[in-house]
Amino acid sequence: MEKLNLESLRRATAGEYAAIRRVTRLEPQGDKVFPPTYEGGEYAEERRQVRSADGRVQAVETVLLDSVQSQANRMEMALLRAYEGGRIKMPLLEVKFAGSGTDPILEEIGRITALEAPHRMCDAIFRDAMHEGRPFREAEVGAKLNGARAANATSVFELCPSALLFGFWDSTGPRGGLGAKVQRSLVSEIVGYEAEKGKRSSSRIDPLQIENNVEIYKKTGGGWTFDAAEAEQNKGAPVKLRPSEINHGNITPSLKHEDKNTRKQVLNHGGVTLAYALQHTVLSLAALRRLRFPISGITTPEIDGAARCVLAALGLAAICLLDEDGFDLRSRCLLDGKPGTFEFVGRGETSEFDMDSNGAAHLLAKSAEAAKDVGLPWPEERVTLQPSANLSRLVVESRRRSMASSAEE
């Protein structure tokens, strides 16, 4: 199998193929895995049609193990680690909260990059940040984004190219909800097949053997006390507590728990058993071909092709770098498997090629150099913003109140 080179990638993005596809088969490492839970404590379950080796199609029970959004976030973090480790070079937008280091809360946050922010360079974090004393979207560097759209994507390519892979909606910009939208061109998800729900018990054995036969009170200002004079008052009476309400005592083994919102008894999340899981990853070259990259108002097939080639190489790097992180998705959801084979897909035909993280990083560097040769901007120095005074205050006050509330509880 041939390794992918820049010329082959250039032809593919120019129109030879519609997409790059890879399917990786993963096996649960353990008897059960625990999918993510959604509102109401539900798993994302559905029946999907699968084709067996003999060509038959049948519907099987499936469960979502990692969503498209989650996979995108994981790929972005893989890119960030590679960037910080010097393995790749790319434009990077960030807000530096630490500043002078005088506030421990801001110091703890450090910096937030566009690879970490939920809405990438369109996130409110960047909207409420400053560049050289001016609001980001009014400063020269940020104002370039105000006219960004699929037909004019050069400014996004220059500031946050990953947004052209994972999609964005500029709803926080000057045009609000009418701001530019660019679809995802890189999509990946992990789904478990032939899923069967399990059950899980919960219990606690208290080594101190404390029981609910002692009268204690909720202490004014937080905590608990034996002294009624120190207790929080409700209608002139001290507020009583049970030891179990302050996390002491035994918990009777049970398959259910009380839902905090409805106060009803619901089954514990019991995980699932699976026959196997699949990671489906598709990089749409057709979606990349909808993007245009004018320079000084002028665009050419050569310029557009060079930019799309960089984005495709960046997407391949994100996929391969995520392989290195493995598939420990959450507690008790560890999967493993040999990465599948990359293939170009187009007009009903496929063509396999070989690629790993080192090859993808090299291809990204080569394609970026070719893009710069035709005049496209690809800065490798970070663009660093500072939080506005109001944003810093909002973060600090919110966290302090949250800590005070937690202490009181």
Explain how this protein is built.
The protein is α+β, with helices and mostly antiparallel strands. It contains eleven helices and 27 strands. Strands 1, 2, 3, 10, 22, 23, 24, 25 and 26 form a nine-stranded antiparallel sheet that branches. A five-stranded mixed sheet has the order 5-4-27-6-7. A three-stranded antiparallel sheet has the order 14-13-17, with no helix packed on it. A hairpin with a 5-residue loop joins strand 2 and strand 3. Helix 1 crosses helix 9 and helix 9 runs antiparallel to helix 10. The radius of gyration is 26 Å and the shape is flat. The protein starts with 5 loop residues before the first helix and ends with a helix. The relative contact order is 0.22. The mean pLDDT is 90.
Question: What keyword list fits this structure?
Answer:
26% strand; 5-stranded mixed beta sheet; 27 strands; 409 residues; alpha+beta; flat
Helix content: 25-40%
Calculate Rg over CA atoms: 26 Å
Low-confidence stretches: none
Largest sheet: 9 strands, antiparallel
What is the residue-averaged pLDDT? 90
Distinct helical segment count:
11
Indicate the proportion of strand residues: 25-35%
What is the assembly state of the chains in this entry? single chain
- Shape summary: flat
Separation of the first and last Cα atoms: 61 Å
Q: Which class of secondary structure composition applies to the elements?
A: alpha+beta
Q: How many strand segments? A: 27
